[in-house]
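Think of the structure tokens as a kind of shorthand, similar to the way a musician reads notation: each symbol stands for something richer, in this case the local conformation of the backbone. In the example below we present two proteins back to back. Begin with the first one, reading the sequence and then the tokens, and try to describe in your own words what changes along the chain.
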Amino acid sequence: MIRSAVLLATVLSTAAFALQRPAGTAPDQQPHWIWIEEATGDQEVVLVKTFDLDAVPASARLTATCDNQMVVTLNGDRVGVHSTWEQVVSRDVSDSLRAGENTIEVRGTNEGGPAGLVLRIDLGEGRHVVSDGSWRAALAQRARRGRFDAATVIGPIGSEDLPWSGRITVEAFDAGGGEMNAADPRGPQRARPADRIALPEGFVAELLYLVPNEVQGSWVSLANGPGDTLFASDQGGKGLFRISPAAIGESEAVTTVERLPVDVSGAQGMTWAFDSLYANVNGQGVWRIRDTDGDGELDDAENIIPLGNGGEHGPHAVMPTLDGTGLYFIAGNHTLPPKFEGSRAPSNWDEDLLLPRLWDARGHARGRVAPGGWIARCDPDGSNIEIVSSGYRNQYDIAMDAEGEIFTYDADMEWDLGSPWYRPTRVCHVTSGSEFGWRSGTGKWPVHYEDSLPPVVEIGPGSPTGVLFGTGAHFPARFQRALFVLDWTFGTIYAVHLEPDGASFKATKEDFAWSKPWAVNDAVIGADGAMYVTVGGRGSQSALYRIRYAGAEATDPVEVRASSGEEARRTRRALEAFHGRVDADAVAAAWPHMDSEDRFIRFAARIAVENQPAETWRARALAEERPRAAVAAMVALARQGAPEDLEPIVSRLLTLNPGRLDESVRLGALRAIGLAFARHGAPSPELQARVLAELEPRLPSGSDAENLELVRLLVFLQSDEVVRRAMALIRGGGDEPLPPWGELAKRNDSYGGPIAKMLADMPPTRGIGYALALRRADAGWTPELRREYFGFFQRAAEHPGGASYSGFLEDIREDAALGLTIEEERNYADLLGTSLLAALPENITPPKGPGRAWTRAEASALLGERLRGRDHAAGENLFHAASCSACHRFDGAGGAIGPDLTTVGNKFSVADVLLAILEPSAAISDQYASHVVADSDGRIAEGILVEDEDEIRVYEGDASAEPVVFDRDSITARRESKVSQMPAGLVDAMNAEELADLVAYLVSGGDPEAEVFREEEGSR
């Protein structure tokens, strides 16, 4: 691509032309560079020429090139595709010619700088068809409507003044080039059955469009457009695309795709509203894309809400409000909220942690604080921004039911598996002012915290992407009412069946669609009643699927509104009307509901109260006699009050009689006490003594959740008893129960690997919770209790967990050891010096070879027929021999520099896996992007960056080396690298059989019973 030269808009002089013309070629048969009048970046242009033939010649050689890409169609036959303008390509096209009228069409794409097409068809006997001013040209969107103009002639081939002539000379063009590839990566495609997708009875799936990665990228978002069209976006820079799906039931119908002529890409959420396409773009925010000249084409893009970078935890969905007056838009926990005019809940967000947290052991989300992921509302022009909800990790999408109730599917932190702070992926009911308690590292709030809300249903491990209701689908009734949520990691679409539960909902889930690999990321219900689904992401092979019902059940539209609970929801909404504003009637209206047993109504009432000045309700809060209302009121006062409110809050809570309260109220009271201390500081000695006298006798209780809250509070209050009593709980914990989502996960074959191993050998999660709190205990230790405490970590490390599990254990142990004297350190050296990381296999042997410098094309050609009957043990050995395990965790063991590879087979095809191995810089997840860091002493390091409070560690290419440590204040430069930390050529020592075994091992997730290891007749 040439970016510095200037296009010539007129034909150059005849004299110059004559100097460059090959001998024997008439001037009117000399090809010219042509395009439309003005070349801009990312244009898609259609150039057309019609010509007549008396008879079809015996041969007809087409020679051409295009800056930057072209697809050539002759009489409807796709005869060539080319994407390297510096190389001329040729092809015999006589089979596509016919006597009479012929039409050649070139669909060209420019990626920036000048643009042009040069083409000639040699018909024999001195006859030619050449690119010149007789061609017609139009932007793809105008061409679709037949709005062509005469092509702009830039100049004759070889002219000294043209930007291409240094590479494309007359001689080179006359000599012809390499064979033009006949495949069309962007042309219309017919629907094909997708039989590998598991579906409920009566449903069928079709592959509508296989996305050409090199020109249209890897799609990660999908939206309905006007009529029966759809919009899709590449995750990278390839652009936005309009899709016209093949009509259902028409065997000859095709799906067509065209790029929008706007410089917008990377949208992870889109919607069509207010006669505009809204796109929420990673690192940029919300764009509004409109047709400004009334020709039916989207031609203008405006960034109406700038949002900072957040990578895959950044800007996501956007959708219209129920009343049609605004938009909702969202972002994950790595993107700060935009400047906003209001917030439904008071915006004095805080971490609200009683004891200091530990950040993730591998550095992820270090320094990220409340509000975490958020959901906001704005007007159609991006003004009047209001924060609606917060406390998510990485909610990718939102969906709204017929009543305007909003739901999202929030991400887990899979590295936390095995720890008490692990939160599975979960569906949340997004109510006004809601808070769902995400905090980084060990700080995640338990689901029972009174100042947060619980999920509708916990799904389990996964990677949430799209969310949609089945409203409008031509599906059986229960699926019309279902909320569908997509899991990218495990290639599953779940149907979540909601049932009213007071002012909110409870739910059950079922597998709706599943395949492997099938990295589903977004879905919509089309105008034809089918579900359209995109797969892709991180540069992987992308595709568009359609799921429709072809069974015998009725698919007539049904009532999708909830059949009960209307009064409770109406009460909640009436309270929510007071959110985000001061209203003299709010306290009186809300206060009776502070005692509601319905958690969502009680939450809405408290937020209504918190929005009013504290002086207008402080006395009423402290005088509240109803226990549940008193707890809610003290939470409100702790959040919105002043330091002088600390003693009155705690004193009021101490008057509650725990023996007469149910567990939820007891937990709420303990949370309110801890929240008051977290917000307003340590108590006076007198108040400390009163709290200890009240709480110490209650440990242990009959509730695991209550025990953990009591241990936290008693450690904070420097209890002399907490160590002895908490160690008794660790010692007598017994078998760890499965988490609530565990039974469903055990029955899900798609999980496999570390998750299945963990559920079969549950870590002592309750004990880890107590140990985390006890690391800050100063009083009550004896030598025996110290030894038992540090010995617990070795026992816990024998169990499997997530990628950060062992690191967290080491960090807790290290933090606890900071309080030891030198003599104590010597006494426990045998327990403090041992590694808690899982050991890697011994006796690893190197590849036998002979190897080669593998290319993706060679590897794909060979492996396409070799991934059956492979050798699991050989693949495992090669994984370690190639040093993969030094950086990557797999099947529960390995390094922490790169991503966990256990589930790559669920998300990526063999071709995608080969791309990642052989071209590691082609697509890099932002979680593992390398950075170049320099400091004031002139030191420079490049690698994976892990941030601490006062320092930054950079892990360079040698996984066994110590990181380079920088003081944060000394850093003078820091930038992201486009080169992967993973070196190329790691598999070049392997022969074809060994490479096949390694790839089979990777896509198997480590399962020796996987299909790739099964022997078949004729296999080796």
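Once you have a description of the first chain, move to the second and do the same.
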Amino acid sequence: MIETLTTFAERKAQEAEQLPAFDGINLLGIKRKVETILNLIGREGIFDEYTVHDISHIDSMLNLLDWLIVEETKSVMSSADWLMTVLAIYFHDIGMLVTKTEYENRDRSGFLEFCQSRLFAEEAGVDYKDKIDQLKPDERQRFLYQEFVRFTHAERIREWVLGKAPDRLGCSHAAMTEIFGLLEPLGQQFQRDLGFICESHHLDDLSDLRKYKVSQPYGDSEAETANLHFAAILLRTSDLLHITRNRTPSIAFRLINPTDPISQSEWAKQMAVRRVRSQMGIGKEGVPDEAAPRNTIEVHAYFTKPDGFFGLTSYLAYAQTQLQKSHEWTIAAKEAQGAKHQFPWRFIDDQWIETEGFLRESFEFTLDQARILDLLTGHTLYNETTVVLRELVQNSLDAIRLRRHISTAKGVEDHAGRVSIHWNSASRCLQVRDNGTGMTQSMIERHLLKVGASRYQDAEFKKLYPSFSSISRFGIGVLSTFMIADHVEIITCHDEEEQARILNLRSVHGKYLIQLLDKSDVRIPEEIRTGGTSIQLHIRPSAELKDVLGIARYWIVIPECEVVVCIDDGEPVSVGYGSPDEVLYDALERSDYVRWDMESDTVEGDIKYRARVRVEQVEIDGLTIAFALRWSEYFKEWSFLAGGNVRSDNHSWPLGTCVEGIRVETYPPGYEDLDGIAAIANAKGQNAPKTNVARSGLEQTPEFDKMIRSVYCAYCDHVMSELAKMQSERDFSLTWAVQEARYLMRSLLNARPRSGKLLSQSIFDLPLILVETSEGRRSASIRELQGSREFWTVDGQFFRSAERMIREVSSSASIGALIKALGVASVDLPQGIIVCDTSVQTFPYSETFNNKEVDKVRIVRGQRRLDLRWSECSDSPRWASISAEAAARFNLERPRLFVANSNIEIEGQESDLAVCCFDRVYVLPGSPISAYLLDQWKLAQEKKDEASNFFVACLFFLADGTFRGDRRPLNSPEHIKEVFSGNKEHRRELMEGFDFQEPFELFTQGPFKVFDSSVWARKEDEL
């Protein structure tokens, strides 16, 4: 047993026992109890080998404080500083304690979810699981639970200090009771702060000076005031630096080697570190000086095996970053709040780590150029051989566009660019020619033969042509030719050079000679002599290159110059379209749709049975998008056509996204599947999104977000246009038009969007919500209503009928005007905005009500009507409810029940216990059942444990059915338990401690009076 407190820090902390704020605390007694608890760690096989967390670890950390705290800081530290620091060191690792009961009940905690979502998640987790599976079953379970506790132990001790033991962190109620009892004399505020500091050694939030206060008083003197921030830094640092051979620190999850859990324990068994100490400071002469300031910590160790060595050196690199952070945090605390405590430590010197049997020097990877070139030209970069033609043509298009750009800048007539593709199936020779700029000698040396050095990304080029935007980005396109060819011949002419150049490339390896020829030489194709390039590939017999024309048509969509394909000795065939709308119209005609612009309504033969379509083309910030629309004869509107309705073949694909006319993606713009809008887009210029290296997709850059936003804006603008035309040109009411606009909008939600956030932002600006005020009826956007302080909903048969009638009247009539016309003075509408034709559960209304809650209930009994006023959600919810996430977690249908919590105004309530509206039940205050539900809900909010939350979810589910009258009768409390537990053992365990006698008595007292305006509407079979 510990007889006395031996370290300097503990003796200074013991002085706090004499202060009024800490009266009744016995530090020696606490340490004795802590020693007993720490000795229990490892008893159940958890942490029995991995590391030591007994009282020796505590004493070692406390001894480190002797030099970690510099003399200037020791002189300003208060008794409360010392007490808080010492207690934090005492308790910070007690969360490692695992009792037999806790381990046996591990499946009731968050252990299984932790394994799936953290240990075994993603690609690295697959390898990690494979290594774990090699352990014996019992050993595997203990190792995994050890990882779970190691990851959560800091949060566990914070909760225990506060007197809480949530089951998600492990069923550890006994440990919590013991810890809480030791610290209870210190008071709740001190316990809270101590919990924060204990947890902080596993967090990275010491920049938060509101949480870790620089000056936290617990009494009426400076001695009773603690610097929580500095105490947390001392705990963090002393824990990091106790790495001598009797202990390995618990660190962040999978820090050392994320794929090999065994290497972690190997390091622990090395026992290699001999000492950690401060390094003597360096004086003015550059030599060690005892009086000089110190900022470096040196580590002495001796290794005979490499596993532990790499584990330690990796850890020390991590530890140094933590020292740097702590140093910066201390300076920030000084600058922000005048803290006087200093933390000079910034560096770790590991040169004192010695090795035997292996070299201490580390080595790194170097690049094997030949092998890298092989990888780049294989299928590891490009996933199919058809991209070879695409890469060559896009290089040609860039050269033509650049030549046109230069000509325009000089005031010369636009250059008529041309790309010709020739395929000879007998000789297996593929040739691509263009009359673009061609290449100079410098371009060949600096870019063509230099992998990854795209000319268009060169700083000098961008300076010369700042507004030019290329298709090519990476400078590796020519390498793709070696996927299918071993011999590549390049002929190029540039107007700045007198002679043409020929290169013969036999492979990506070796050196090449450049042959100079007069431009009039017969070997130079006529069309490139004034500028241009010809690339000829001799295709390997083993390489597949079928249907060159089809491949060209697939990739080359809107080239903005002439592109022709010649197969063998056949006639040239033009490839590509002039604009996106031409692409779509061609596909629609092949899909048996009739092009119709409404200017002529004549039909012949069976053409009248074919759907009428048109294409809308929009240009926004360098993006041109065309989308297909289908005419509805009955509803008189142009609705979106889904991509899956457009017929095509593999080489005539009409949908997707192009960059500078070359196809990059094949799904409809803005979507990730064919249920999206039938559309094609072409992005050009500086705002065009960037492609990945293989050009198989678009990178997530600001340009990408801007393009996607433009796509969604184009779709939403069409909805707006149809909304306006239905009223101004097609003689429909505002109500009809808005409802139909909502139908059109739903087409935007039928597929997976590329960005749900950007799509929502666009839709939120559409006026899809009907509202009324004293000034009449109009349409409003989701964003407008979300920003409104409050609005009303009105539910009743009169209003439902009025909505149906107003919809059919070709005018901007409103319910208010209808009431006035009928002369019904008794029907008074709420003042302010009234949201009409609502369904809280469906989009877009669900978003409108997303940040709103009911703050006033108005029952208009004589009119069989219910008015609800909605205002912004308060910090404390006005209604208690069960979230969808909680219901799903317990595999329950979400109860649509809301129990009044506070601040609810009610008018017209008589004996009603609840009101029903929009398929929701609102339980009003003032009844025993309301009080009971609210009390149980609040209790669950305080406990935050799984069992309490499940119990409340069951109660709300029961109450929901009871008030609606659509649940089967309850026979007994045991019957209720049986209904909710079923054959699920986990549910049975959760319900073990709960008594359903009281809710059974409450819920069987009915029938309960519920005001529901829909009960006055008979069904057809009742009439």
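Compare your description with these statements about the second chain. Confidence is low (pLDDT under 50) at residues 245-270, 363-369, 371-381, 602-609.
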